[in-house]
Amino acid sequence: MAPERVVLPTNVTPVHYSLKLVPNLETFVFTGEVAININVNEPTTEIQLNAKKLNISKASVIVGETTHKATSIDAAENQVATFKFGHTLPTGPAVLEIEFDGEINDRMNGFYRSQYKNKEGDTKYMAVTQFEACDARQAFPCWDEPSVKATFAISMVVPFELEALSNMPIKEMTAVEPDVKTVYFETTPIMSTYLVAFAVGDFEYIETTTTKLEKPVVCRVYTLPGLVEQGRFALEITPKILEYFAEIFGIAYPLPKLDHIAVPDFDAGAMENWGLITYRTVALLFDEKTSSAASKEQVASTVAHEIAHQ
Length: 310
Known about the structure:
Elements: E1 12-24, E2 29-40, E3 44-50, E4 54-63, E5 66-77, E6 80-89, E7 92-103, E8 110-117, E9 123-130, E10 151-159, E11 163-166, E12 170-177, E13 180-185, E14 198-201, E15 204-209, E16 218-223, H1 232-249, E17 257-263, E18 270-271, E19 276-280, H2 281-284, H3 293-309
Parallel strand pairs: 1-10, 16-17, 17-19
Antiparallel strand pairs: 1-2, 2-7, 3-6, 4-5, 4-7, 5-6, 8-9, 9-14, 10-13, 11-14, 12-13, 15-16, 18-19
Helix pairs in contact: 1-3
Cofactor: Zn(2+)
GO biological process, one term: proteolysis
Keywords: Aminopeptidase, Hydrolase, Metal-binding, Metalloprotease, Protease, Zinc
């Protein structure tokens, strides 16, 4: 029997997440650190937030100049992690810091791995997220309820030869070791956890930019190596759809970029992650030589549907 999902208390609420992840596509384990700017809304000795299938090793709260280490960490019940502190946390701003690790799983939810064959016939993997409705908690401890919104600054430590993607454009990259880099992404607008997204893999992309919007939007289609031209049709229609929706809704697209990515193992048809839309391969890619007119129509419909969510 699946554990009951519980509604989190409102004694503490998040404002901003600074999330760092280190995924390993050979061991299928990721480590993570998150610093969550919180508001303590009433004095408390306990903080609860969502976590599922994560190993939480450390937790502490910084209030002003004082650090309060959690005296106990319980992440076993109902997908809720409970941190208890030896001192009462006063009302006001604070920072909750957590260290954790988890599995890049094969269940097509949370932070999961997708398998494919390269042109040499070797088995390879990419890692991608699927958080709707309540699976961000499998990737990092968070208030994983749609009504509890915050901003997110995400960074990922990955091998140099791989691409890292998230909701926002890359802010900067720094070398960690000769063959490892840290990719820092710009901070998101206020949003729900289920729309947070990231991906790591050997990707190729093609790019265009809107021409009729007040603020140009960079549009890309990401695929596995060798498939990028099959994303040409989706790329061509993306600026047209963005511009059309901006006109009929009277609302500008709020992010500086919009990426589509084709994922070999994907349970849904597509998912409207803000700024990084994920698709089952057949829902995004179209081969002019072999695909049918019905397939082309379906790609157009799916892309338009997901952009409408934006």
